[in-house]
């Protein structure tokens, strides 16, 4: 076999394989997730309450105030502070939490990314990513726990009065 025919055969084989490899990369979906913008986060959380099994937090648009309360195993707490968002897909709640033992400042942040129309969320800095809202929203999506009603401010005010009267 001559060197020319070997070279021709190698070029032909390579030419046939490259389109298949390129198609494989497309089919594998190597598209990277992108962070939600500050605007997208503001629209998603603004003037909504994020309900939790043990309470919830309300994100006021006006002044970006954040108010929350929890009742974790009979230990009630309330929080007052601010919420901030950025173009890196991050939402942070910076508040002073108060319970019967005292008060302490805390900052809790969540990252948000999207891949297509699916939004993923994780607690920062090292939580696991999970689906926050499926492309076709499902009843059990965490996103569904963001409701357009303030269900926490009255409870937080009441708890604040009780705890401050005990001092």
Radius of gyration: 25 Å
Largest sheet: 10 strands, antiparallel
Number of continuous helical runs: 3
Distance between the termini: 97 Å
| Range of strand content | 35-45%
This entry's quaternary arrangement is single chain
- Helix/strand-derived category reads alpha+beta
Poorly predicted residue ranges: 1-28
| H-E string | HEHEEEEEEEEEH
Helix content class:
25-40%
Number of strands: 10
Average pLDDT works out at 86
Q: What gross morphology would you assign?
A: elongated
Written account of the structure:
The chain has about 170 residues and is an alpha+beta fold. It has helices at about 5-25, 40-45, 155-165, and strands at about 35, 50, 55-60, 65-70, 75-85, 90-100, 100-115, 120-125, 130-135, 145. Strands 1, 2, 3, 4, 5, 6, 7, 8, 9 and 10 form a 10-stranded antiparallel beta sheet that branches. The longest helix is centred in the first third of the chain and has 25 residues, at about 5-25. It is elongated and about 55 Å long.
SSE layout:
Blueprint: H1 3-27, E1 34-35, H2 38-45, E2 48-52, E3 55-59, E4 65-72, E5 75-85, E6 90-99, E7 102-115, E8 118-123, E9 130-133, E10 146-147, H3 153-165
Antiparallel strand pairs: 1-7, 2-3, 2-10, 3-4, 4-5, 5-6, 6-7, 7-8, 8-9
């Amino acid at each position: 076999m001559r060197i020319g025919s070997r070279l021709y055969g190698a070029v032909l084989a390579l030419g046939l394989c490259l389109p298949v490899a390129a198609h494989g990369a497309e089919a594998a979906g190597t598209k990277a997730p992108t962070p939600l913008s500050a605007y997208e986060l503001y629209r998603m959380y603004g003037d909504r309450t994020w309900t939790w099994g043990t309470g919830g937090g309300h994100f006021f648009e006006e002044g970006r105030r954040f108010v929350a309360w929890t009742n974790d195993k009979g230990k009630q707490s309330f929080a007052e502070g601010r919420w901030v968002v950025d173009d890196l897909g991050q939402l942070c709640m910076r508040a002073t939490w108060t319970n019967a033992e005292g008060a302490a400042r805390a900052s809790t942040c969540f990252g948000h990314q999207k891949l297509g129309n699916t939004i993923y969320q994780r607690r920062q800095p090292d939580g696991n990513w999970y689906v926050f809202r499926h492309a076709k929203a499902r009843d059990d999506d965490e996103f569904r726990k963001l409701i357009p009603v303030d269900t926490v401010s009255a409870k937080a005010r009441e708890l604040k009065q009780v705890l401050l009267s005990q001092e």
